[in-house]
């Protein structure tokens, strides 16, 4: 029974995103490379893969 409810809630979420599609804007992610900032979307396939594997941390 839980699977059906979870599936329905996921379906509702998709529908809400589809409804608001015209209000969404593209988000550019920048990262610092060799002392300057570049958008990740301009990376080649290998560099995009490296970026996804990075581990982020917060300094205390």
UniProtKB/TrEMBL annotation:
It comes from the Bacteria. One of its GO terms (biological process) is DNA replication. Pfam families: NRDD. GO terms for molecular function: ribonucleoside-triphosphate reductase (thioredoxin) activity. This is Anaerobic ribonucleoside-triphosphate reductase.
